[in-house]
């Protein structure tokens, strides 16, 4: 090995050791980590281990000697998502025994809490399911018609009976996979901010990937759930701008949903900019916190929503779920096709120089560009339990 190569290797090793020393000093002063901290720090240990040619467990022992949950998350990330809460519904297998209160947090709400998916799935009115070990879960729902019989009867008269229409919707498990990239320079220069860097990049990439499907209008396929706007026709915006137009749009969307039954848990989904306009313009009746009591119009503000789009959903008819075994992997040696619709790197049987798909482009060699990639794979799914419970408006005037 040349003297120059030895010097460069020692410099890189010194940088990483300095980085770890600073991180150790920082985390030794902190309080107990949140579930998001645990997951992000476990990924950070894998990134540093890859750069340092060590093991994630060894890095965790050095950075977090008294935080066993970090080492546990490295071994089994699914344990971070579990809570000691009993199942919420029936015990009949195959019907609703898998439905739970927020026992399974899910890795997506932890990694990307500001995504529309995460905020919507955590509303109290929505249905959450544990998809671990199940290909699909049946979610019960009830049609608003026929209605039950009137409760009042005359003396000595028989009480009328009418059967309510009850059905079920399948919540199917799908595989979600997101890859985030970092250059070696980003990681070396970030020093004690490496945890925030990894968390922020993964959150942004996951939000873009998941919300792009959730808020779309594509039909369900074998590999992806349907977008909540699938089959929904946009309503006309209210003209004039200002608060009057905002109120008119909310009224229009509510009326569209109420055409298929009473509106139980009205929730509007909008861009962060639109949410600021609402927050600064309105008082009372609309809240940003979903923890308050009383009838309210909840707001989900997410960066993935188009600026002039307003969506309303009856959260009581939104069901979502995730598995409990997310997989995180890091590498510095892969070749990636950097595209929103990636292709196989090479086409079997293709002829170099004549087949345009023999090598997917643009491609990045992590080794050649001194970069590292973090891949997350998790099972998740969502569904609307009834049709007609979503409405939206484009090009709002307020």
Automatic annotation (TrEMBL):
Q: Cite the Pfam families for this sequence.
A: Phage_capsid (PF05065)
InterPro entries referenced in this protein's UniProt entry, alphabetically? Phage_capsid, Phage_capsid-like_C
Domain of life of the native organism: Bacteria
Q: Where in the cell is it found?
A: Virion
Q: Where is this region: Disordered?
A: 135-154
Where do the Phage capsid-like C-terminal domain residues begin and end?
110-270
SUPFAM superfamilies linked: Major capsid protein gp5 (SSF56563)
**Name of the featured protein:** Phage major capsid protein
Q: State the organism named in the record.
A: Bradyrhizobium barranii
């Amino acid at each position: 090995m040349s003297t120059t190569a030895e010097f460069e290797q020692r410099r890189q090793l010194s940088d990483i050791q300095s980085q770890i020393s600073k991180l150790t000093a920082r985390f030794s002063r902190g309080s107990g980590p949140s579930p998001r901290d645990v997951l992000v720090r476990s990924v950070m240990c894998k990134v540093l281990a890859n750069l340092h040619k060590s093991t994630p467990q060894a890095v965790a022992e050095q950075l977090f000697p008294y935080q066993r949950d970090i080492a546990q998350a490295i071994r089994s990330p699914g344990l971070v998502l579990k809570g000691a809460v009993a199942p919420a519904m029936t015990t009949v297998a195959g019907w609703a025994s898998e439905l739970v209160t927020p026992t399974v947090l899910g890795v997506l709400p932890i990694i990307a809490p500001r995504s529309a998916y995460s905020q919507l799935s955590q509303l109290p009115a929505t249905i959450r399911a544990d998809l671990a070990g199940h290909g699909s879960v049946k979610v019960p729902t009830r049609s608003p018609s026929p209605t039950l019989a009137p409760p009042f009867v005359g003396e000595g008269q028989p009480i009328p009976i009418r059967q309510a229409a009850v059905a079920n919707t399948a919540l199917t498990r799908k595989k979600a996979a997101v890859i985030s990239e970092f250059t070696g320079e980003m990681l070396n220069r970030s020093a004690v901010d490496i945890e925030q860097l990894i968390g922020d990049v993964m959150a942004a990439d996951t939000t873009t990937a998941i919300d792009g499907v959730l808020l779309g209008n594509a039909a369900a396929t074998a590999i992806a759930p349907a977008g909540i706007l699938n089959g929904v026709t946009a309503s006309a915006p209210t003209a004039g701008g200002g608060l009057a137009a905002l109120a008119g749009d909310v009224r229009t969307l509510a009326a569209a949903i109420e055409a298929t039954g009473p509106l139980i848990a009205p929730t509007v989904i909008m861009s962060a900019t639109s949410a600021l306009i609402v927050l600064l313009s309105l008082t009372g009746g609309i809240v940003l916190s979903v923890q308050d009591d009383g009838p309210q119009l909840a707001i989900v503000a997410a960066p993935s929503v188009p600026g002039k789009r307003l969506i309303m959903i009856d959260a009581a008819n939104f069901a979502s779920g995730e598995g409990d075994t997310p997989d995180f992997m890091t590498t510095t040696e892969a070749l990636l096709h950097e595209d929103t619709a990636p292709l196989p790197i090479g086409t079997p049987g293709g002829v170099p120089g004549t087949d345009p798909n023999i090598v997917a482009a643009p491609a990045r060699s992590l080794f050649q560009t001194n970069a590292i990639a973090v891949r997350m794979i998790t099972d998740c799914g969502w569904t609307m339990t009834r049709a007609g419970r979503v409405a939206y408006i484009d090009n709002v005037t307020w």
